[in-house]
Amino acid sequence: MPPRDHAIPAGKPVTSLDEVLVDCRNAALTFGRGATAVVAVHGANLWVRSADRLAIVGPSGSGKSSLLHLLAGLEQTTSGTVTWPALDGPGGIGIVFQGDSLIAALDVVENTALPLVLAGVPDGEAHRLAAEALALVDAADLAERLPEEISGGQAQRVAAARVLAQSPRLILADEPTGRLDHTTGGHVLDALLTAADQTGAALVVTTHDPAIAARLTTRLAMRGGRLLTVDEPQEAS
């Protein structure tokens, strides 16, 4: 069954605050076959709801990113199911990947607008939405810079803005602070939380940093590909 804090009691009407965006039931993911097979996720059960601020915590190799990829529809389950009851499939999901993801030849606003342009949004409207998203993450002043002209923390904020410009109902962020110092990582999480609050999106963040996880409402732990516990966050030191 899904973790208790992420289950909706039987018979309770679904509201805008507890609407289930992702229903993950006994979902497993295995890479390879036979003796060389590696089980990245073992039978995970999880509901992600529309008001969630959720951290998935664990060391490198614990299966956090693999689980996130299942939630995003980037990988298909080997067994079990992942469905998106309140979304148009995984299309209502925006993903902030770890590390560099900006196109070097495009400036910041062009990078932010690119997914919208590719989706058929007219250039002017795409750039307007991109500028609004950059303002949400306090990066409006970077609009005309190239990726090589901004810092790693700024690039992660731009990556977040690129997702936010698409107005997703669920934001999945895979170790968005993993390559950043503590202060810069805190600013990136500030941007994600603020943007999720302002756009009404749910937010799921994978992290190995307990201080980052402590700032989200609920924390799940992964070890060896298994989703182990649901913890209430503790204050960051």
Automatic annotation (TrEMBL):
User: Record keywords: Nucleotide-binding included?
Assistant: yes
* Highest taxon listed in the record's lineage: Bacteria
For this protein, the record's PROSITE patterns field holds: ABC_TRANSPORTER_2
Q: What keywords are annotated for this sequence in UniProt?
A: ATP-binding, Nucleotide-binding
Domain (ABC transporter): give its ranges: 22-236
The stretch of residues making up the signal peptide is none
Q: Which GO terms describe its cellular component?
A: plasma membrane
What Pfam families would the database entry show?
ABC_tran
Under PANTHER family, the record lists: ABC TRANSPORTER RELATED, IMPORT ATP-BINDING PROTEIN
Q: By what name is this protein known?
A: ABC transporter ATP-binding protein
From the broadest rank down, the organism's phylogenetic lineage runs: Bacteria, Bacillati, Actinomycetota, Actinomycetes, Kitasatosporales
